[in-house]
Amino acid sequence: MASVLNSALSLNLSNFKRRRVTIRAADTDTNEAKPQAPVSGGAGGSSFNQLLGIKGAAQETNKWKIRLQLTKPVTWPPLVWGVVCGAAASGNFNWTLEDVAKSIVCMLMSGPFLTGYTQTINDYYDREIDAINEPYRPIPSGAISENEVITQIWVLLLGGLGLAGLLDVWAGHDFPVVFYLALGGSLLSYIYSAPPLKLKQNGWIGNFALGASYISLPWWAGQALFGTLTPDIIVLTLLYSIAGLGIAIVNDFKSIEGDRALGLQSLPVAFGAETAKWICVGAIDITQLSIAGYLLGDGKPYYALALVGLIIPQIVFQFQYFLKDPVKYDVKYQSLILLNGTIAAVTLGEDEAAEVNYQIGSLLLQNDVKASTVDFLVIRCL
User: Where are the beta strands (DSSP E) in the chain?
Assistant: First the structure.
């Protein structure tokens, strides 16, 4: 795998340089006005946005801050929360020092290391698109060299796989299930971003793969760490990955110009922004309503009602914000699905799982995490 990845990165680097020259030559030979991507970031950007790895980031010269930016910390919370949901659904998590330590290591594996790896390798292979859409980003702006990026990719990948192996040993697994989940997720991340497969070239396949990586894999890792993966968990999380497809579409709106220029068939490019935003909210809402129906059919009407109670304000926010401007409200919108996943997780565990979520809710409220207030109140009533 190492030789394949290194050769692929080197080959694409040389191709990128040749293509970049071609693009510039074409620009000088035509008198047509090109649509310009909105300039964001730079001297007037936000240092906070830079650390989170989101648009509007300030230009930075500190290499460690640039490395952090490449990992996009703003994308870590869904993975961390997925581990929480998996641990809760296992019914075997206890508030002991050992279990808390295991869960923290699993969160580090899923978030900073493997999500960081995913985001860094995606930025590496998206450097042509970013040169059009976000030329201020670290790689196209030249703030960090390609060799330094390749080194970061390997450090994060090997670090994440190492933590996965450690968790299997710690949990006493006869079969290294967490390691293989991490390895499979890493391979999926690679073929999502890298040619020749480059799953993200197809809006449907690529976004579902991304949704599965962000929702199913961390949930499975958390549950496998403390319990056993079961068919109902696999079905539930794969259904939630359809909702994740909707969330993944959100990221495509800001990249329409670059995707179109380089032939990537993201859904906003294929269907237009107006249709794509309705596909986005439809994938999320219909999936979550289906989960509510699943819970109702499974004899858990109160949990189904709780989930519907969280979907309603989500729909209100969709009309009030996202559907009006999917680019401006992309990050805020993606956080909404985290609340609803917890309800499903609680229903699949035993009483211990409910206690996990109750205590998590208590900690969140004590720290004034307002986004989780509704979730906590629903769980407390249940």
Answer: none
What SS3 class is residue 350? coil
Per-residue pLDDT of the chain (382 residues; tens, 9 = 90+): 555 455 555 545 445 444 443 333 333 333 333 334 444 455 556 787 777 777 777 788 899 999 999 999 988 988 998 899 899 888 899 999 999 999 999 999 999 999 999 999 999 999 988 888 888 889 999 999 999 999 999 999 999 999 999 999 999 999 999 999 999 999 999 999 999 999 988 888 998 998 888 889 999 999 999 999 888 788 878 877 887 788 788 878 878 888 888 788 889 999 999 999 999 999 888 988 988 888 899 888 888 898 888 888 888 888 988 899 887 776 555 555 555 555 556 555 543 344 334 333 333 333 333 333 233 223 322 3
Q: What is the DSSP string of 44-108?
A: TSBHHHHHHT-SSBBP---HHHHHHHHH-GGGHHHHHHHHHHHHHHHT---SSHHHHHHHHHHHH
Its pTM stands at 0.73
